[in-house]
Amino acid sequence: MNDFDYLKKGDVYLDVACQSLRPRPVIDAINQYYTEHNSCGERVKYKWGVETDERVEATREKILKFLKLSPRKYTASFTLNTTYGINLILSQLEPKHFNKIITSEIEHNSPFLSSIAFAKRTGLPREVIEREVDGSIDISNLDFTNAVVVVNCASNFDGRKLGNLKELTKAVHKAGGIIIIDAAQAMAHSSDVLKGVEVDAICFSAHKLYAPSLGVIVWRDDLAKKMTVGFIGGGMVDDVDKDKYILSAEGKEHRYSRFEAGLQAWGEIVGLGAALDWLNKLPKTAWRNLDNNSRELYEFLSSSDKVHLINKEPNPTMSFYVEGLDSHLLGSALSRENIMARTGYFCAHYYLDHVCGYPPLMRFSLGLHNKPEDIEKVKKAMSKII
Ligand SMILES: Cc1ncc(COP(=O)(O)O)c(C=O)c1O
């Protein structure tokens, strides 16, 4: 794909689960912002600001469209990353509306730790539930009465998906609870699980979606009723008196401002809009190529007796360890062949280390920039090293 033509020949980047590469149109859009309309959004009346406003507003609309959510019910607000988004919500929820917080064992530290912090702050109990092998949640024996549920929709070590998100959401809402989705991984290649499902909030990182470093919170308007604003600053108020203020978010037009204290990353927001355009225009062959590459590498790894794969099925994200070989050493050896992939527990320490007792792992996470030649190169290098 020409949109990644800046990659050096022979470099194989397999760390998309951390940050995807940015295609040329995204880099161009950011450059365009800095060179043609470098200005603050949502406050500025001169022409550069008007241009920025239009593009920022368009990005908000594109996000909701991508997720098939109605702008009548949902708002997209910008933050720093997924972690920041989840913390911003959990730290402002009023405990009086809830009985407990539920998360799952396969979570990234982002929801895992912030759910611990929520339980500590509120004094409410916290439950860590199991996930099925396929990533779904067995809701039959769970009590969601007034629960805050915060779970991922795709894992960051083997890509397993929350396939029954729709059922789960229904059950949580029926019991008076709310559900916050960590979509950090799902957005790039598993967003089908999420699209159109009316959860209370979705947090994701644009940097895992072929876009610049940026966080997004997509939230349902009635979530605001269960929150008290506790993180506040410029860009959030219509009026300020000595000891009080009027939140702009209380009006119809500036709801997004509820989570946007201070100046935002305008260039990055513009870049996210370009990334969504790029994704929407991608030919089906690009996705097929990603599937084929993932399957090819998965099958190669499965065929070795020495490789212990965590994945039960092919996915662009796959983790494993090689018997008798330290994963960090393996990562360094691959790096000497210009293959860039991650090692360790990928911020899922509780599950991978404490529940499963795995040694530190190696993770290959593939993206739309990868070519079949990359996979051949990895296979060759792995065969040589093992
Ligand atoms: C599933 C999942 N959740 C949350 C995060 C945190 O993302 P960020 O560091 O961008 O906040 C990650 C990052 O890898 C992730 O994979």
CATH class of the largest domain: Alpha Beta
State the helical fraction.
25-40%
Unreliable spans are: none
Strand segment tally: 15
Query: Which radius of gyration do the C-alpha atoms yield?
Result: 21 Å
**According to CATH, what is the topology of the largest domain?**
Aspartate Aminotransferase, domain 2
What's the order of the H and E elements? Answer: EHHEHEHEEHEHEEEEHHEEHEEHEH
Return the average pLDDT rounded to an integer: 97
- Let me know the CATH homologous superfamily of the largest domain: Type I PLP-dependent aspartate aminotransferase-like (Major domain)
Q: Looking at the structure, what is the overall shape?
A: globular
Describe the structure.
The protein has 386 residues and is an alpha/beta fold. The chain has two domains: 2-18 and 283-385, Aspartate Aminotransferase, domain 1, CATH 3.90.1150.10; 37-279, 3-Layer(aba) Sandwich (Aspartate Aminotransferase, domain 2). The protein is 35% helix and 17% strand. A seven-stranded mixed β-sheet has the order 2-8-7-6-5-3-4, sandwiched between helices. It has a four-stranded antiparallel β-sheet with strand order 11-12-15-14, with helices on one face. Strands 1-13 form a two-stranded parallel ribbon. Strand 9 (237-240) and strand 10 (245-247) form a beta hairpin. It starts with 11 loop residues before the first strand and ends with a helix. The model has no long low-confidence stretch (mean pLDDT 97). Bound molecules: pyridoxal-5'-phosphate.
